[in-house]
User: What shape does this take?
Amino acid sequence: MGVRPRDRPGDGGAGGGEYRRIAETIAEELRGAGPAAVPERLCAAAVTLLPVDGASVSLRGDAMPVHLAASGPRAARLAQLQATLGDGPCCHVLVTGAPVLVGDLAADDCAHRWPVFAQQALGAGVRAVYALPLGIAGVCVGTLDLYRDTPGALTDRQLRTARLVAGVMTGALMDLPHDPRDGGEPWLSGLAADHDRVHQAVGMIMAQLGVGADEALARLRGDAFAQGATVLEVALDVVAHRRRFDAS
Assistant: This one.
């Protein structure tokens, strides 16, 4: 019988022993992984270490979060949804640098704060979201988003463990090769290419509509949500001239 998420460790103390346990679990999860697979493996480690059902990682982009990896399709879709909407716990963390801990997305304040994201997440069976900043020295470079199917807050010990997971994840991501001259696979190259396509699409929409960058990105996001697609999917259509925006 597999270990259910609620029975997984995450209630232990967060001292040196807890940090070693987290580091060892992550090291085991990363064993044999190439650079491109590391972010997804780190998400899987977060689900193993904490009483959650999914995890995703997003990085700070110029105008929107850049989805990096997830533990599964549902977590990936929720991360992409936040990037498409420009709203949600992940986006809030990237702006403030402070964690967002939502014990119940069905609460009235969540419906007012993130009406579309909360509705979509609840429809996907997610009841709680815990978003933590990734970074050092007070600089937020991304977020670790944790999703749970049942409502409830993390205990103090679980939150300390989550913070340690985010810290180890930050270090692991920073240690990955970013340039082929470093002798490793440039794991961000595909991500950067996707981000460039979004920027290119925004530029094309600006020209088509005669609007500024913010308005063009808003139109791109709105079109993506209306289609049930991601911003990247619509951006690729724009760049390939399969989708054109008309001033109407």
About this structure: DSSP finds ten helices and five strands in the chain. Residues 189-209 form the longest helix (21 residues).
